[in-house]
Amino acid sequence: MTTALTRREALTAGFGTVLLPATLSAQPAQKPAEFKIGVTTFLSGPASVFGVPSRKACEMLVEHINAAGGIAGVPVRPIFVDEGPGTDHLVGEFRRLVQSEGVQVMMSAISSGSCLACTPLATELKKVTILWDCGTQRIFEEAHYDYAFRTQGYGTSEILAPLLYLLKTKPNIRTVAVINQDYAWGRDSWELWKAGMDALKPGVRVVAEMFPRFGSTDFSTEITRLLALRPDVVLSTSWGGELVTLIRQSTERRLHERTTFVLPVAEASMQILGRTMPEGHVIGTRGDHWNNHPAPKDPALFNKFVGDYRQKFNEYPIYPCHHIAQALWALKAATEKAVAAKNGAWPSDAELAGAFRGLTFPTPTSTITLREDGQGLEDQIVGLSSFNDRFPFAVPKEMMLYPGAQVSAPVGQKSTDWLKSLKPDFVTTAGRSI
Amino acid sequence: MAEWFQDNGLLLGLALLDGLSSAGLIFLVAVGLNLVFGVLRIVNVAHGSLYAIGAYSAASIGIFAGSLGLPDWASIPALFLSAALVGAVLGPLIERFLLRRIYAQEEVVQLLVTFALFMILEDVQKLVWGVQPIENRVAMQLLGNTDVPFGADFIPYTNYQLFLLPGVAIVTLVGLAWFLRRTLTGRVIVAVTTDREAASAMGIDAAKIYLLTFTFGAMLAALGGALSSPTAALVPGIGAQTIVLSFAVVATAGLGRIEGAALTSLMMGLGRSIAVYFEPELEVVVPYIIMVLVLLVRPQGLFGVAETRRV
């Protein structure tokens, strides 16, 4: 049986839909029986090389948190959603998790495209959204968000740090080529690199710009061209299977003997490459969480996280594992801060969002501060690929640490504008050896 | 023009070498799809999964052979063995229990069923091999490199890509042409491709030919995957990328035409590699530009024959 809807009822329902989230977010909240968090990550497709390990790390850490009494006494329950089917699907799932599942916090996402699609929903639904891995600089530079926060660094710092390292350790480079994946990150990261390079070392010539199709499994033609061009530097921000294939095919044809690779996202592929990774090339990890970090802030906690993950999954954690852990630690710190501010009462969505702004939370390697625009300041460690007796894969040596605040565009400035304003002497003043 | 060739002749030579290798792999996958399409008249989206499973199986068998202490040269026959295994096991299973039920269905139903199979097999790959990149490069390392002169310089190429991939593609092309034209079974397949109704009316066991052709097509897809496995890290999603290009080859070549598939693969392989040298932004679209240009002039494909449609 169906009932006809009157115009008045329809208007009431419509206004209710629009106004209800705002009303609810201002209501004092009851302490929930469980702390439901929605987590978007890649469980299918090529990026599942990041998504699946990060899910495992999330589940492991949630187990630890719950075993220790949960967050502010409430056990945490993550609900995972696959980013693989695309942004339209993800946006629908985001709404479903908030409106039907009743999750209290969203953690989204790996892909920059996913973050760009989901972050506006944080404002619309007035739900705290932690951007836990995506790197696009556009999020906080193109809009203001009251409910969205990024608990790690971003593209600008993750590209600038390897560039600074390269120019400091190899100041005489004259030519550079790029081979990046043909999608947002590949294009954006090159734009950032180019802006920084032109400012910090004017006159470096770009001899090839190649953006092979996303998901390519053969780079032999691109490698031939690079072998013929002999650029001083080859930049690649590629990741996953594509980076592994690129490095394997390059080393088999001895490209690494003719050029210096700069690989800002290398860390996640080092275990798979093993001893194939050539030594002496610039490698980054989108943060400071190298497995051979020489001086983590909390060595016991760092070793426990890495050790527990290794014991449970028989592999070392890669950077998305650390990033999702950072998101959980930030959530724990912000929630406990908000609960303490209310003398033990559970915070509303707006109060929880307020606790995130300006939050400083500890990680095993450092502390991260969330700026007023929501962007996290995460230190960056870059080094040269090398081998030692501790690890069966390449780790960095001759490391430099670049503090997050030093390699991030100031609040209110666009990254490319800021990078263009840098002076060449910044190369010598930025960062410190560790 | 002459001046351009003088400046870029050497680079063009490198592009030709790269293009040959790329064309060899494209051909192996596309020719299987073309055969299946020609005989069964089914757009088999799951062909990409057979390619991926062939690749994963080859890597696994190679790794297993290595763990048994077998000599490195065993990795090369292992590539062909894995392709034969994947085709011989999955081909009859899929044809007998799935495709045979939908031959009489509308094309859209066939498309949806093979797409569903593709999705299921993608998940099977993740269940069996996980999501982290897998590789076994022994075959490629075993064959070593050749330094190709480049002016005063030289360019190292792997012998695997310089000789083995184009070589296998040529042997496959010649072998297939001989099989289809010189053997009874091959001629029967050609007859079914040309006119299914007339062939059936003359007493050809269509069910048997369908099974045989699909299994053979599955083996070719798996062979393409197996031969690509020493050159690439295998990750979820490789099947999807392959199938799109294979469809472009089939459409351009013409239904069931192996020479067309060979020529189209060559055009697309060379087109892509030349684009990488001279206009990298066009690399992705070059195959589809070739397809559009060919279909504008010859809607039935390069080697296709225009058919009379009954109304």
Automatic annotation (TrEMBL), chain A:
Protein keywords: Amino-acid transport, Signal, Transport
InterPro entries tied to this protein: BCAA_transport, Leu-bd, Peripla_BP_I
A Pfam family of this chain: Peripla_BP_6
Leucine-binding protein domain residues: 35-376
Keyword GTP-binding: no
One GO process term, biological-process aspect: amino acid transport
Similarity field: Belongs to the leucine-binding protein family.
Listed name of the protein: ABC transporter substrate-binding protein
Origin organism lineage: Bacteria, Pseudomonadati, Pseudomonadota, Alphaproteobacteria, Acetobacterales
UniProtKB/TrEMBL annotation, chain B:
Keyword Cell membrane: yes
Coiled coil ranges: none
UniProt keyword list: Amino-acid transport, Cell membrane, Membrane, Transmembrane, Transmembrane helix, Transport
Database matches in InterPro entries: ABC_transp_permease, BCAA_transport_permease
GO cellular component annotations of the record: plasma membrane
Cell location: Cell membrane
MF-aspect GO terms: transmembrane transporter activity
Swiss-Prot/TrEMBL GO biological process terms: amino acid transport
One Pfam family, short name: BPD_transp_2
Residues annotated as transmembrane: 20-43, 50-70, 76-95, 160-180, 209-227, 233-253, 284-306
Membrane topology designation: Multi-pass membrane protein
Similarity section: Belongs to the binding-protein-dependent transport system permease family. LivHM subfamily.
Protein name: Branched-chain amino acid ABC transporter permease
Source organism: Neoroseomonas lacus
